[in-house]
Design a protein that fits this description.
The structure is a single chain. This protein has 184 residues and is of the alpha+beta class. The chain is elongated, with a radius of gyration of 24 Å. The chain is built from 3 helices and 5 strands.
Length: 184
């Protein structure tokens, strides 16, 4: 994943831009804390609850045809908990006082989520590229060793691409199968 220092720097810049924030953390979609600035709060617990809420939010957005998850806002008596998508592999959760300007919270949370997403996704892409190159090198080395032994070379393993969801079109009803009964 992305450098903890870079993500932590972004969390601190977010807290500077929105002074009513009481904490912020970035977590992977697997629930592991990437970086946190949450004094007085257990970051592992918040990350685990964030991933649980994320699962429900993703299903809710999908079931209602609203598209991919973007953000989740919870308002309590003492303040807000806001969770934002941060690229493909992470989420950003911020804690804010009740007196926070909600528009500012949304705007700055979205910006920080996008920046953290760029960091995490770039690191994941670099790791995937390094893995692919290592696999290709290992496959080429074993194929050349087998050819030197006189055995036929094996084909490289098939790679699969990750499946992603696309937004559903809203359901519409047509009048062709509708039944109406009227008695005069």
């Amino acid at each position: 994943m992305a450098s903890e220092a870079e993500i932590l720097d972004e969390l601190r810049r977010l807290r500077a831009r929105v002074p009513q924030l009481t904490g912020a953390l970035a977590a992977g979609v697997n629930g592991l804390v990437l970086a946190q600035d949450t004094p007085g709060v257990e970051p592992e617990r918040v990350a685990a609850l964030t991933v649980t809420a994320l699962g429900v939010a993703v299903r809710m957005a999908d079931a209602t045809g609203q598209g991919d998850f973007r953000e989740l806002i919870v308002r309590g008596v003492y303040g807000y908990v806001a969770t934002y998508a941060a690229g493909r592999g992470a989420v950003l959760t911020v804690l804010a006082q009740d007196r926070v300007h909600v528009g500012r919270l949304l705007l700055e949370g979205r910006r920080a989520g996008a920046r953290i997403g760029e960091l995490v996704d770039a690191e994941a892409a670099a790791a995937a590229e390094a893995t692919a190159q290592a696999t290709a090198t290992a496959t080429a080395t074993s194929a050349s060793e087998e050819q030197a032994d006189g055995a036929p070379a094996k084909a490289p393993p098939k790679t699969t691409t990750a499946r992603t969801r696309t937004a559903r079109a809203p359901r519409t009803t047509t009048g062709t199968n509708a039944r109406t009964t009227t008695e005069s």
